Structure prediction request, 455 residues.
Amino acid sequence: MVRRLFPRSIRARLTVVATLIAALVFCATSALALTTVPDNLRGVVHARVEVAVRRVASEARAEQLPPVLEPPTRVQLLRVVSADGKVIASSRGVPEDLRLTSLRPAKPETVHTAERTVYRSPDEPEAHYLIKALTVQTPHGPVTVYGASSLADVDRALIWVHLLVFLGTPLVLVCVAGITWITVGSALRPVERIRAEMAEITGQDLSRRVPVPDTGDEITGLALTTNDTLDRLERSAETQRRFVADASHELRSPISALRAQLEVAHAYPDETDWKVTGERALAAADRLAGIIDELLMLARLDAGAVPERRVVDLAQVAQDQIRRREGSEVRIIPDLCAGAPVFGSPMQLDRLLTNLLDNATRHAAARIDLEVAVEGDKVVVTVTDDGEGIPPQDRERVFERFTRLESARAKDKGGSGLGLPLSREIATAHGGSLTVADYSPGARFVVVLPLYGPP
Prediction:
């Protein structure tokens, strides 16, 4: 089993990554500091002492040396010594244990550099000096100019640099890890609350919602999207429960009627009109078969099944519908264009018109107007009846499955409440729409589908 290089927790992973990045940055910075800072600090002291030594050397060449030399700031001593070791000029307080005369430049006019450590006092037992020596020619012979500056400030600065690098870096990395751990934990706390709430939501209770933080960040968007998804799931579950209940009710009615008729006929065979009983049983079976067919087609549409499609002339489909309904008590007044091609399933499009005309026939008083027209790149089919109409507040509700308005239930005209929802599903599956338009008296259903045109 391969061990994971990083922990599973996002919080731990981000903490490790942030600490590693900080470690790389601090290591690079520390290496650069340890490489450049000592040279820079010492370079300043070197330049300061060398400038002072060369200035005194110039005064020695011009025989303008004062007996007491005044060193510049941060240069502790200056001394001029002749070739035989005699001190010509010197600053005050030069410690003799620096052994300046033992430092002799190898070449004239060349600055020689050395470092010496001397004992100063019990309070400062050691003093670290940078010494430079320069031999020049004067009218009285060669002399050597010495200059010295304490490296105590440089040593202290380097000690602090090393402490910051070797002690400060680990402390900073610990702080970075701690701050990252706390910050990521705080940022992920709303996610944990969302996870805990989601874990308690079950299929029996979809009314609960996850908490939405007011930070306005991505987690807020996640919570809002999660609640939107739960809203859709709740609506879907409620629709499914209502669908199952309504389907059970609608299927129970024809089955109960069929069973009752057969039980009565079986109990009283000699008194039964078998012809009438058979016709009633056949009507109940037809209604049951119709409901099952519509349920199966709705299930196929819900599953996204795509039947075989081809170019269908809706004007011809409407003409066939009118021909099949000849002799009906309700007249169909056609207004059909010459051709209305659409690309779709012939069976489903025929079922769409069948459902709309069946619905209009059940509610119409005397006539149905059927119009098929081409408007721009759309085919518009209008089915209008002269019945009682649909109240505006119910014009969307009639497209809910198993929904039957009170007026339709009172008349008991045999509807199942699936025809209009199925028709809308078919129209939507073909890239169109089915709506109820404003019309009075009666109801007007309008189907809009894309006109077929060769590519």
About this structure: The CA atoms of residues 287 and 414 lie 8 Å apart. The radius of gyration is 51 Å.
